[in-house]
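Hi U.,

Before I forget, here's the chain from the pilot set. I'm dumping it here mostly so it's searchable later in email.
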Amino acid sequence: MEYIGGKQLITEALKSGHKLHRIYFQNEAAIDKNVIALAKEKNIPLESITKELELRPELAQGLLAVAEPYNYADFDMLANSEQDGVVLILDHLEDPHNLGAIIRTALCAGAKGLIIPDDRSVKINSTVLKVSAGAAYYLPVVKVKNINQAISKLKDKGFWIYGADMNGDINLFNSKLDGLLGIVVGNEGKGLSKMVRDNCDGIVSIPQVGSLGSLNVSVATGVILYELFRQRSINGVKK
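Structure:
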Protein backbone atom coordinates (compact mmCIF):
# COMPACT_ATOMS: atom_id res chain seq x y z
CA MET A 1 0.00 0.00 0.00
CA GLU A 2 1.02 3.64 -0.42
CA TYR A 3 -0.28 7.02 0.69
CA ILE A 4 -1.42 9.90 -1.49
CA GLY A 5 -2.76 13.27 -0.42
CA GLY A 6 -4.52 16.39 -1.63
CA LYS A 7 -7.89 17.08 -3.18
CA GLN A 8 -6.92 16.94 -6.86
CA LEU A 9 -4.74 13.85 -6.66
CA ILE A 10 -7.30 11.88 -4.66
CA THR A 11 -10.10 13.05 -6.95
CA GLU A 12 -8.22 11.93 -10.08
CA ALA A 13 -7.34 8.60 -8.47
CA LEU A 14 -11.03 8.03 -7.75
CA LYS A 15 -12.14 9.12 -11.23
CA SER A 16 -9.52 7.00 -12.98
CA GLY A 17 -10.54 3.85 -11.14
CA HIS A 18 -7.28 3.48 -9.22
CA LYS A 19 -7.97 1.43 -6.12
CA LEU A 20 -8.22 3.40 -2.86
CA HIS A 21 -8.88 1.58 0.40
CA ARG A 22 -9.60 4.46 2.75
CA ILE A 23 -9.66 8.26 2.80
CA TYR A 24 -8.79 10.24 5.92
CA PHE A 25 -9.74 13.88 6.58
CA GLN A 26 -8.68 16.48 9.12
CA ASN A 27 -11.87 18.53 8.94
CA GLU A 28 -15.07 16.84 7.79
CA ALA A 29 -16.77 20.15 7.01
CA ALA A 30 -13.97 21.11 4.61
CA ILE A 31 -13.97 17.94 2.49
CA ASP A 32 -14.59 18.60 -1.19
CA LYS A 33 -18.09 17.49 -2.24
CA ASN A 34 -16.74 15.67 -5.30
CA VAL A 35 -14.43 13.60 -3.11
CA ILE A 36 -17.34 12.67 -0.84
CA ALA A 37 -19.59 11.74 -3.77
CA LEU A 38 -16.92 9.67 -5.54
CA ALA A 39 -15.93 7.89 -2.33
CA LYS A 40 -19.54 6.98 -1.60
CA GLU A 41 -20.06 5.80 -5.18
CA LYS A 42 -17.06 3.47 -4.88
CA ASN A 43 -17.81 2.42 -1.28
CA ILE A 44 -14.56 3.82 0.07
CA PRO A 45 -14.66 4.66 3.79
CA LEU A 46 -14.10 8.26 4.87
CA GLU A 47 -12.63 8.58 8.35
CA SER A 48 -11.21 11.23 10.66
CA ILE A 49 -7.42 11.14 10.52
CA THR A 50 -5.38 9.80 13.42
CA LYS A 51 -2.57 11.74 15.09
CA GLU A 52 -0.08 9.22 13.74
CA LEU A 53 -1.23 9.68 10.14
CA GLU A 54 -1.14 13.47 10.50
CA LEU A 55 2.64 13.10 10.45
CA ARG A 56 2.62 11.54 6.96
CA PRO A 57 4.41 13.85 4.46
CA GLU A 58 1.81 13.00 1.79
CA LEU A 59 -0.98 14.71 3.78
CA ALA A 60 -2.18 17.77 1.84
CA GLN A 61 -5.21 20.04 2.06
CA GLY A 62 -6.42 17.98 4.99
CA LEU A 63 -6.77 14.78 2.95
CA LEU A 64 -4.83 11.51 2.94
CA ALA A 65 -5.73 8.25 1.19
CA VAL A 66 -4.47 4.67 1.39
CA ALA A 67 -3.98 3.47 -2.18
CA GLU A 68 -2.84 0.43 -4.09
CA PRO A 69 0.69 0.77 -5.51
CA TYR A 70 0.93 2.37 -8.96
CA ASN A 71 0.07 -0.04 -11.77
CA TYR A 72 2.62 0.13 -14.58
CA ALA A 73 1.40 -0.51 -18.12
CA ASP A 74 2.40 -3.36 -20.42
CA PHE A 75 5.08 -2.63 -23.02
CA ASP A 76 3.35 -4.59 -25.79
CA MET A 77 0.16 -2.61 -25.28
CA LEU A 78 2.10 0.58 -25.91
CA ALA A 79 4.20 -0.75 -28.80
CA ASN A 80 1.50 -2.60 -30.72
CA SER A 81 -0.23 0.32 -32.38
CA GLU A 82 -1.05 0.94 -36.02
CA GLN A 83 -1.97 4.58 -35.44
CA ASP A 84 0.28 7.62 -35.49
CA GLY A 85 1.43 8.65 -32.06
CA VAL A 86 4.28 9.68 -29.80
CA VAL A 87 5.87 7.57 -27.09
CA LEU A 88 8.28 9.24 -24.65
CA ILE A 89 11.37 7.34 -23.53
CA LEU A 90 13.21 8.71 -20.49
CA ASP A 91 16.92 7.83 -20.32
CA HIS A 92 17.46 7.56 -16.54
CA LEU A 93 15.85 10.72 -15.18
CA GLU A 94 16.45 11.17 -11.45
CA ASP A 95 14.24 14.05 -10.29
CA PRO A 96 10.64 13.11 -9.37
CA HIS A 97 9.51 16.69 -10.02
CA ASN A 98 10.77 16.46 -13.60
CA LEU A 99 9.06 13.11 -14.12
CA GLY A 100 5.78 14.36 -12.69
CA ALA A 101 5.83 17.50 -14.84
CA ILE A 102 6.67 15.49 -17.96
CA ILE A 103 3.82 13.04 -17.34
CA ARG A 104 1.34 15.90 -16.93
CA THR A 105 2.49 17.60 -20.14
CA ALA A 106 2.61 14.32 -22.05
CA LEU A 107 -1.01 13.58 -21.20
CA CYS A 108 -2.16 17.07 -22.18
CA ALA A 109 -0.18 16.97 -25.44
CA GLY A 110 -1.66 13.63 -26.47
CA ALA A 111 1.32 11.30 -26.04
CA LYS A 112 0.49 7.59 -26.20
CA GLY A 113 2.59 6.73 -23.16
CA LEU A 114 5.95 6.86 -21.46
CA ILE A 115 8.80 4.40 -20.91
CA ILE A 116 11.24 4.49 -17.98
CA PRO A 117 14.08 2.11 -17.04
CA ASP A 118 13.88 -0.10 -13.98
CA ASP A 119 17.32 0.81 -12.68
CA ARG A 120 19.07 4.12 -11.90
CA SER A 121 15.88 6.04 -12.54
CA VAL A 122 13.14 7.72 -10.57
CA LYS A 123 9.99 5.61 -10.31
CA ILE A 124 6.35 6.59 -9.88
CA ASN A 125 6.08 7.68 -6.24
CA SER A 126 3.88 10.01 -4.22
CA THR A 127 5.87 13.07 -5.32
CA VAL A 128 5.60 12.15 -9.00
CA LEU A 129 1.89 11.53 -8.61
CA LYS A 130 1.38 14.88 -6.88
CA VAL A 131 3.41 16.89 -9.40
CA SER A 132 1.60 15.16 -12.28
CA ALA A 133 -1.69 16.35 -10.73
CA GLY A 134 -3.03 12.82 -11.18
CA ALA A 135 -2.08 12.58 -14.87
CA ALA A 136 -0.05 9.45 -14.08
CA TYR A 137 -3.32 7.62 -13.44
CA TYR A 138 -4.35 8.19 -17.07
CA LEU A 139 -1.10 8.07 -19.07
CA PRO A 140 0.32 4.56 -19.56
CA VAL A 141 3.78 4.37 -17.98
CA VAL A 142 5.91 1.31 -18.80
CA LYS A 143 8.94 0.19 -16.79
CA VAL A 144 11.57 -1.78 -18.74
CA LYS A 145 14.83 -3.48 -17.81
CA ASN A 146 16.80 -2.11 -20.75
CA ILE A 147 16.16 1.14 -22.62
CA ASN A 148 18.10 0.12 -25.73
CA GLN A 149 16.22 -3.15 -26.04
CA ALA A 150 12.94 -1.23 -25.72
CA ILE A 151 14.05 1.15 -28.48
CA SER A 152 14.95 -1.76 -30.75
CA LYS A 153 11.57 -3.39 -30.15
CA LEU A 154 9.79 -0.13 -30.96
CA LYS A 155 11.77 0.11 -34.21
CA ASP A 156 10.67 -3.41 -35.08
CA LYS A 157 7.08 -2.20 -34.63
CA GLY A 158 7.58 0.67 -37.09
CA PHE A 159 8.57 3.50 -34.74
CA TRP A 160 11.13 6.12 -35.70
CA ILE A 161 13.27 7.04 -32.69
CA TYR A 162 14.63 10.56 -32.14
CA GLY A 163 16.78 11.68 -29.25
CA ALA A 164 16.58 15.19 -27.83
CA ASP A 165 19.79 17.15 -27.32
CA MET A 166 20.74 20.83 -27.49
CA ASN A 167 23.50 19.92 -29.97
CA GLY A 168 21.28 17.82 -32.22
CA ASP A 169 21.53 18.41 -35.97
CA ILE A 170 17.76 18.33 -36.65
CA ASN A 171 15.99 21.63 -35.96
CA LEU A 172 12.71 20.73 -34.24
CA PHE A 173 10.80 23.61 -35.84
CA ASN A 174 12.03 22.96 -39.39
CA SER A 175 11.32 19.23 -39.47
CA LYS A 176 8.26 17.19 -40.24
CA LEU A 177 7.98 14.49 -37.61
CA ASP A 178 4.95 12.28 -38.03
CA GLY A 179 3.95 8.63 -37.95
CA LEU A 180 4.90 6.41 -35.03
CA LEU A 181 7.55 8.28 -33.05
CA GLY A 182 9.65 7.57 -30.00
CA ILE A 183 11.23 10.65 -28.41
CA VAL A 184 14.15 9.94 -26.07
CA VAL A 185 14.93 12.47 -23.34
CA GLY A 186 18.22 12.24 -21.44
CA ASN A 187 19.30 12.45 -17.83
CA GLU A 188 19.22 15.88 -16.15
CA GLY A 189 22.99 16.14 -15.91
CA LYS A 190 24.47 13.64 -18.35
CA GLY A 191 21.95 13.86 -21.17
CA LEU A 192 21.58 10.91 -23.52
CA SER A 193 23.85 7.94 -22.90
CA LYS A 194 26.14 7.04 -25.80
CA MET A 195 24.46 3.70 -26.53
CA VAL A 196 21.03 5.30 -26.56
CA ARG A 197 22.21 8.17 -28.77
CA ASP A 198 23.75 5.72 -31.24
CA ASN A 199 20.50 3.75 -31.32
CA CYS A 200 18.44 6.79 -32.35
CA ASP A 201 17.47 7.51 -35.95
CA GLY A 202 18.26 11.18 -35.43
CA ILE A 203 18.85 13.86 -32.78
CA VAL A 204 16.54 16.87 -32.59
CA SER A 205 17.35 20.19 -30.97
CA ILE A 206 15.32 23.18 -29.82
CA PRO A 207 16.62 26.51 -31.19
CA GLN A 208 17.40 29.03 -28.47
CA VAL A 209 19.16 32.32 -27.95
CA GLY A 210 21.42 33.56 -25.17
CA SER A 211 24.25 31.87 -23.34
CA LEU A 212 22.42 30.28 -20.42
CA GLY A 213 22.72 26.72 -21.72
CA SER A 214 20.17 23.99 -22.15
CA LEU A 215 16.55 24.11 -21.00
CA ASN A 216 15.30 22.19 -17.98
CA VAL A 217 14.45 18.66 -19.13
CA SER A 218 10.73 18.94 -18.34
CA VAL A 219 10.47 22.30 -20.12
CA ALA A 220 12.37 20.99 -23.16
CA THR A 221 10.16 17.91 -23.29
CA GLY A 222 7.07 20.12 -23.17
CA VAL A 223 8.32 22.21 -26.08
CA ILE A 224 8.99 19.09 -28.15
CA LEU A 225 5.65 17.48 -27.36
CA TYR A 226 3.65 20.57 -28.22
CA GLU A 227 5.54 21.14 -31.46
CA LEU A 228 4.66 17.56 -32.44
CA PHE A 229 1.08 18.19 -31.32
CA ARG A 230 0.98 21.36 -33.44
CA GLN A 231 2.29 19.56 -36.52
CA ARG A 232 -0.22 16.72 -36.15
CA SER A 233 -3.11 19.10 -35.52
CA ILE A 234 -2.32 20.98 -38.72
CA ASN A 235 -2.36 17.66 -40.58
CA GLY A 236 -5.67 16.65 -39.03
CA VAL A 237 -4.18 14.19 -36.57
CA LYS A 238 -5.05 14.86 -32.95
CA LYS A 239 -2.32 12.74 -31.35
